[in-house]
Structure to design on (582 residues):
């Protein structure tokens, strides 16, 4: 065991190193590469917050993209410059049409509205378990899509809102990512987290210990939704367009896949899964246009990236059904003892 | 301390308990005996509010338990040590024990109780940071008992603590239950192992197909021909 102060120092150094690297990347790399790095950051935050709900509390939600949509739209409407707002969304009620908030308050309000949605739908839905809960949260995603498509005055329906200011940059993304990881880490290492994990293991036994099931499930669900909302808002202001289709099943499932591939009940797993599943498809995309390696030229293979990805996913799930890192966590002790700080030796 | 009056409990259309009445006085160790499907676990479920009852009343120190949500039971001073142990398999032994004290705010006292549990079950000290799922059956049962005691209960409900354990371990578990009683706690012990249970109980009830068939002191029950034939293999 290393002492706590040393660990804190290491963590601080690692953070500084991360931001120095990001700073250098920001100067040297092309906007295309920076966009990928930013997407990695957003996805990490989304998957880590999803892991809190799905992995640590066992509330298997498929509604994450729905909360992203809520956050993205709320933040987009709030932060849209007044001049553009008058043209793009002329039907907005006056109190909304005449506000233009700066980025930070828009993000936070977006997250809060997503959390409130989670509270409203969570109260009835969280009585369900397992598959039923998953289907119910999927239903929420459908409802959100329909509402956004129909609420023309606020959202321009299927056309979406374009022309958002590109507020999101590397700093916004990665500071948000670090905050998300920190908050989730604090939660799972507190009595709240212990209660959540007890619910995941055995809800009846947890209840017998005095854990209020509804309260803790709701808490995990709402915290997850809050970060999903902010993540969605950041994403919207990176791409600068939001449409109902931006937050469909595809997105929910790609987040769940990242979470499962990395390891559902681990923050480290979330980080690994999100990074890999964002970067690998980008790299594979190069294959599609055809490359020449050592005189042998490979013709363009359209769709190959999807096929390779699917095969990789199947292999990972067969070889490591609990995800790449399982439910282990990164720890500085790792370097000292050459051994993972195992929360769970049962896995292997 | 604990009073059940004409309790009727149904699973769908199947009646599991028929007019069950029983009482446990403060400081007593009461055993509830019966074969598989007699309604022992259902009785405990009714008491710990995990299954609603259709008719009858359940009172604990004057509180009507039928109106209390299950997670508030711990606050009243009732701990349930469930059947099949049900430890939190992927959490460590220490985390399991800490969960037992989930609703307690007196951190210093919790620490002291933790030490006491470790001194009662030295095996748990060795396995402190190991995940509970990797423990042997007997160790898991000790952990489940320790976890139940961490809430400082007035009344402890044990559901088949000897189930599936080696005879030597069963002996140890019963010793511990006796110790718990000697500390002044009240115990309701549900067991199939009638002989062992009667050895430490003050009084016992015998359940059969959802109704209380017999009631009495261990001596009375042990001399009863029916009990001997049905449960003691005599």
């Amino acid at each position: 065991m290393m002492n706590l102060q040393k660990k804190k120092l290491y963590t601080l150094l690692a953070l500084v190193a991360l931001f120095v690297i990001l700073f250098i990347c920001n100067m040297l790399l092309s906007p295309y590469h920076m966009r990928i790095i930013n997407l990695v950051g957003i996805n990490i935050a989304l998957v880590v917050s999803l892991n809190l709900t799905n992995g640590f509390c066992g509330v298997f939600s498929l509604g994450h993209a729905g909360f992203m949509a809520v956050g993205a739209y709320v933040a987009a409407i709030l932060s849209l410059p007044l001049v553009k707002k008058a043209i793009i969304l002329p039907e907005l009620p006056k109190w909304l049409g005449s506000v233009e908030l700066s980025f930070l308050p828009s993000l936070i309000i977006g997250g809060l509205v997503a959390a409130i949605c989670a509270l409203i739908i969570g109260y009835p839905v969280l009585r369900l378990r397992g598959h039923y809960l998953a289907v119910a949260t999927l239903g929420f995603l459908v409802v959100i899509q329909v509402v956004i498509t129909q609420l023309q005055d606020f959202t321009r329906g299927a056309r979406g809102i374009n022309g958002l200011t590109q507020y999101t940059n590397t700093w916004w993304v990665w500071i948000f990512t670090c905050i998300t990881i920190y908050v989730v880490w604090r939660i799972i290492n507190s009595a709240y987290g212990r209660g959540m994990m007890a619910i995941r293991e055995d809800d009846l036994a947890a209840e017998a210990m005095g854990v209020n099931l509804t309260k803790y499930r709701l808490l995990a669900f709402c915290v997850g939704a809050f970060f999903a909302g902010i993540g969605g808002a950041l994403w919207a202001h990176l791409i600068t367009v939001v449409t109902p289709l931006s937050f469909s099943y595809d997105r929910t499932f790609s987040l769940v896949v990242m979470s499962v591939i990395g390891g559902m009940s681990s923050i480290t797993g979330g980080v690994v899964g999100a990074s890999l599943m964002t970067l690998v498809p980008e790299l594979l995309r190069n294959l599609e246009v055809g490359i020449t390696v050592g005189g042998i030229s490979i013709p363009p293979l359209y769709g190959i990236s999807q096929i390779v990805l699917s095969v990789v996913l199947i292999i990972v799930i067969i070889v490591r059904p609990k995800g790449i890192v399982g439910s282990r966590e990164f720890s500085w002790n790792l370097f000292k003892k050459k051994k993972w700080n195992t929360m769970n030796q049962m896995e292997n | 301390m604990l009073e059940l009056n004409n309790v009727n409990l149904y699973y769908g259309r199947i009646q599991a308990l028929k007019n069950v009445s029983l009482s446990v006085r403060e400081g007593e160790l009461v055993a509830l005996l019966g074969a598989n499907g007699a309604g022992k676990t259902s009785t405990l479920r009714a008491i710990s509010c995990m299954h609603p009852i259709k008719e009858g009343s359940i009172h604990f120190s004057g509180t009507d338990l039928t109106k209390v949500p299950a997670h508030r039971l711990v606050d009243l001073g009732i701990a349930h040590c469930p059947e099949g142990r049900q430890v939190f398999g992927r959490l460590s032994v220490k985390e399991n024990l800490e969960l037992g004290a989930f609703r307690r705010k007196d951190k210093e006292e919790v620490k002291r109780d933790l030490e006491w549990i470790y001194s009662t079950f030295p095996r748990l000290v060795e396995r402190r940071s190991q995940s509970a799922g990797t423990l042997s059956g007997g160790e898991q049962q000790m952990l489940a008992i320790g976890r139940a005691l961490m809430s400082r209960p007035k009344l402890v409900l044990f559901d088949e603590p000897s189930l599936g354990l080696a005879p030597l371990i069963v002996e140890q578990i019963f010793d511990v239950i006796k110790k718990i009683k000697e500390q002044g706690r009240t115990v309701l012990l549900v067991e199939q192992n009638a002989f062992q249970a009667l050895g430490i109980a003050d009084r016992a009830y015998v359940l059969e197909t959802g109704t209380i068939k017999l009631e009495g002191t261990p001596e009375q029950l042990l001399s009863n021909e029916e009990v001997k034939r049905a449960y003691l293999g005599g």
About this structure: Chain B has one domain: 2-231.
